[in-house]
Design goal:
The structure holds two protein chains of two kinds. The N terminus of chain A is likely disordered. By secondary structure, chain A is mainly α. Chain A is built from 15 helices and two strands. In chain A, a hairpin with a 5-residue loop joins strand 1 and strand 2. By secondary structure, chain B is an alpha+beta fold. Helix content of chain B is 23%, strand content 14%. Chain B has a three-stranded antiparallel beta sheet, with no helix packed on it. Chain B has a two-stranded antiparallel sheet with strand order 1-4. The longest helix of chain B has 13 residues. The relative contact order of chain B is 0.17. Classes of the chains: A mainly alpha, B alpha+beta. Chains A and B meet through helix 1, helix 5, strand 1 and helix 10 of A and helix 2 and helix 8 of B.
Chain lengths: 411, 471
């Protein structure tokens, strides 16, 4: 494991000493079964928190569904604003679930060898959205292109959930990554806000894109409304599958998860949390934008909600570490590590808090915060958050080792 | 424990065995492995001991933290789906107009190896088909097919039709080991269905190629040209039946001829050109090196499609992807001191496999890239062209490579395809369904080695495969 030897010296020393102490103390059966019981407790707490989080996410997604249907049935400035408000409200709870990803679980499992169905994450939250594949866009010269599924009634006579699912990722191609991203939260966002053409504000799609007659600002208003309501319904359906897999007391993924060997379940939990913290949040979602400073290189670019997404993502990692949900602290991975090596547990709690605090301190919107020189306050906070997430991932590898779990994170 | 022990040894730290398995766990010194542990460090000091699905997705261990940012930026761009232009995400729009995939990682999934479709009902998704007609372009390269260009792009953006639907049809043939055991091999043939732009040239030549694993490419680039040429024997002067020779190909940046190193026919001189070539050929993204969209005169919709910028990927982004592709770590060998593996390793030598699959190189000095410099690596390739016989031939010349010649592919990582990519398909078109079949397909210059393999007892054949699996 590279990381064990590239982290600051004190930690590496701690680690080697911890192993030595552990080994020389021997491993009695009693100590081992205590460990197993503590691990099982963490696994159960995690499962309960996952279930609560998805239940919350789906509850607000249903509010969004109601607001979207109200808008499509009767488009106006007011119903559009209501739908946008509902979209923003739906984002926080979903972003808080993202540390459950990358754990070969119901949200995004892609392992062909197991009996868990492939997860619908790609239909729920994929990015970057293929805007021109959905609806009209305007190019750099201000020329509008009436393209996309909405404006191609000959090729897509019907708009329904099956059509949109297949258009997003042709299942025949058999590879999750091969998609024209056109469903999920960001598709709803694009259809509510429109392309983000302004330097410092969100997209400004008029509600009249959804009306016919004199007021109309775009062709195919009815098809646009059908796309928006269908894609929102589809989002709720896909969230439901994930939610169902975690419901308590059912013959579902949760049932097998809490009964598998605790160390195996812990491996999945840690793989998910570490991949989210390091590779996905720290690198893909933050560092790349920080380095390349490409405007709109951000997840919620149409609504300018990216900073809130990132903040909640960091909180989701923290929740998994601590075994907490909101204010309720439970048995967490940190407690297991604490029992073997308090210094690593301390480092982990510290790192994630630092990431959370620094993201919170950035003044948005994100696509503005990444601009400018490295000594601007926002860039300093972003940099500090990225480093903290990096340190977190490195420490997590040591922490996992300390509790007998070997993980390899995708870089 | 092997891998952890290895990393500790490699860094000169004390080795300890730890963990609890039953009540008997005690700290025991690891048995002294034989042979030297350095044989396991396939990618020099950058070798990773990661395993599992992400075994190919690791940064070189010896790349310092402060040099890793570009790697991660490149990684993100490697995974990112390109979108149809115009889009809000202006830096990554410009997909197509026709294309094979929307992202690099689509074919190089988890930085790993692509495969052919398992049967004719499955579309081709992580391999491609090169096209050309007899003759050569101004630089000696293949002459693109006039209507479809140099590569079939099965997909298109909404307003532009994909070029066609390539399908693989297979037939089984049988053969026999010297001990009478029968084996079966799967022989592919290709059909181009639903061609969207009219007839394809009657004399078109096809070359099917799977996406290669991305590991260790910077190290292969770092091998001094003189060291490559030193192993070449174009006229088989030593009479061993093996005449490795370098391809000489066109380097666009320097507008000169260079030795080819990358690609199944060593038709790319440098990784940077390989990458930008793939951006254009596979995803339809123009770059500084390749500024023109690859639409043919028969494809006016392709010409008329909205561009994602001029070029579509700018130099800074290309640089990040180039950096990334140079620094993907090579996984360490597993089970390298297992007696059966050692037996297999010995057979690899006596059979003559190492005549082309060169075990060890020491890289030269790469300016500003000390991590790639002076590394002792075990790629198991000479990067040279060899006649592999008529059965494997694509019959399609590519610069100096003739229709029978293929570049020796590196063998590092071949034992991990199963873990990383859920398949065990080998050779340029993925026809071999496991490593044993891969050996059996060898012919031409490798005829003697393959014949020697067939003469082995089953236990010996298995040992050779075990050795390959340990790479």
């Amino acid at each position: 494991m590279k990381s064990a030897f590239s982290t600051p010296v004190p930690l590496a020393v701690t680690c080697v000493l911890a192993f030595a102490g552990f080994a020389s103390a021997g491993c009695s059966n009693a100590a081992e079964s205590d460990d197993t019981a503590a691990q099982a407790d963490v696994v159960k707490t995690y499962a309960a928190n996952v279930a609560t989080s998805y239940a919350e996410a789906i509850s607000v997604a249903k509010d969004l569904q109601t607001a979207v249907h109200a808008f499509v049935d009767s488009p106006s400035e007011e119903t559009l604003n209501d739908a946008r408000t509902a979209w923003l409200a739906s984002r926080d709870p979903y972003s808080l679930t993202e540390a459950y990803r990358f754990a070969q679980g119901p949200i995004d499992n892609d392992d062909a060898d197991d009996d868990i169905p492939d997860g619908p994450e790609g239909l729920i939250n994929a990015w970057p959205l293929d805007e021109s594949y959905i609806d009209y866009t305007v190019d750099a010269n201000g020329v509008r292109h009436d393209t996309g599924i909405i404006n191609r009634p000959d090729d897509f006579p019907t708009i329904n959930a099956d059509v949109l699912t297949t258009a997003n990722a042709n299942p025949d191609l058999g590879r999750a990554s091969e998609t024209s991203i056109s469903t999920g939260y960001h598709a709803v966002e694009f259809l509510l806000w429109g392309q983000d053409l302004s330097a410092d504000g969100p997209g400004a799609r008029p509600y009249t894109d959804y009306v016919t007659g004199d007021e109309a600002t775009a062709e195919n208003a009815d098809r646009r409304g059908a796309y928006l309501s269908t894609v929102t319904d589809l989002l709720v359906d896909n969230l439901s599958t994930v939610n169902d897999a975690w419901l308590d007391g059912k013959k579902n993924y949760r049932a097998s998860f809490v009964t598998m060997t605790p160390s195996k379940a812990l491996g999945k939990i840690i793989l998910g949390m570490g991949s989210m913290a390091g590779g996905e949040l720290g690198k893909q979602r933050m560092q790349v934008a920080y380095d390349l400073q490409d405007q709109e290189d951000e997840h919620s670019c149409f609504s300018d909600n990216t900073l809130a997404d990132l903040y909640n993502n960091a909180l989701s990692v923290q929740d998994v570490l601590l075994g907490s949900y909101g204010k309720t602290d439970g048995a967490g991975i940190d407690d297991l590590i604490e029992a073997k090596d308090p210094a690593i547990a301390f480092e982990l709690r510290n790192d994630i808090q630092e990431a959370v605090d620094n993201i919170h301190a950035v003044s948005g919107p994100f696509d503005q915060a990444i601009l400018g020189d490295d000594d601007t306050g926002s860039r300093q906070h972003l940099h500090a958050a990225i480093s903290a997430l990096d340190n977190f991932k490195e420490a997590l590898i040591l922490g996992a080792n300390a509790i007998g779990v070997k993980v390899s994170f995708e870089e | 424990m092997t891998s952890r022990t290895l990393a500790l040894l490699a860094l000169g730290l004390p080795t300890l065995s730890f963990g609890c398995s039953g009540a008997a766990a005690v700290a025991t010194p690891t048995p002294t492995p034989t042979p030297d542990d350095s044989v396991a460090l396939s990618g020099g000091e950058g070798t990773t001991t990661a395993s599992g699905k992400n075994a190919f997705a690791q940064v070189a261990l010896n790349l310092s933290q402060k040099r890793r940012d570009a790697f991660f930026d490149g990684n993100a761009l490697f995974n990112r789906n390109w979108t149809t232009a115009p889009a809000s995400t202006a830096a990554t729009d410009g997909l197509g107009p026709t294309f094979n995939a929307r992202s690099c990682s689509s074919c190089h999934f988890k930085d790993g190896r692509g495969r052919p479709p398992f049967d004719e009902n499955e579309p081709m998704s992580s391999m491609l088909i090169r096209l050309s007609v007899p003759g050569a372009d101004e630089h000696g390269g293949p002459l693109p097919e006039p209507t479809y260009g140099g590569q079939l792009n099965p997909l298109g953006i909404l307003d532009v039709a994909g070029e066609g639907d390539p399908r693989v049809v297979t037939a089984l043939i049988t053969g026999e080991y010297d001990d009478g055991t029968e084996y079966e091999l799967s022989v592919p043939s290709y059909e181009l269905r639903d061609l969207a732009y009219g007839e394809i040239a009657a004399d078109v030549m096809l070359s099917p190629r799977t996406a290669p694993q991305m590991i260790g490419l910077g190290l292969l680039q770092a091998i001094d040209e003189s060291d490559l040429l030193a192993t070449a024997d174009p006229d088989d002067a030593d009479g061993d039946g093996i005449s490795g020779r370098p391809n000489h190909v066109w380097d666009v940046a320097s507008a000169s001829v260079m030795v080819g190193r990358f690609g199944w026919k060593a038709n790319q001189p440098r990784l940077e050109q390989q990458n930008s070539g793939a951006f254009l050929g596979d995803i339809g993204i123009t770059s500084t090196l390749f500024p023109n969209q690859n639409c043919t005169a028969a494809q006016p919709e392709c010409e008329a499609a909205t561009s994602g910028g001029d070029p579509e990927i700018d130099a800074i982004h290309v640089e990040k992807v180039d950096f990334y592709s140079k620094y993907l770590a090579v996984p360490a060998r597993r089970d390298y001191s297992d007696p059966v593996v050692l037996q297999g390793e010995k057979l690899f030598g006596t059979l003559g496999c190492g005549s082309c699959h060169t075990t060890t190189f020491k890289t030269g000095t790469v300016e500003d890239n000390p991590e790639l410099s002076s590394q002792t690596i075990h790629p198991y390739t000479d990067l040279l062209l060899h006649d592999m016989g008529d059965d494997l031939a694509d019959g399609r010349p590519d610069f100096e490579a003739d229709g029978n010649e293929w570049r020796t592919p590196p063998l590092w990582g071949v034992g991990l395809f199963k873990e990383v990519n859920d398949h065990t398909r080998y050779m340029h078109d993925g026809r071999a369904r496991n490593l044993e079949e891969a050996v059996l397909w060898h012919a031409g210059e490798a005829e003697n080695a393959a014949a020697a393999f067939k003469s082995l007892a089953k236990a010996e054949r298995d040992a050779l495969v075990r050795f390959l699996d340990s790479l």
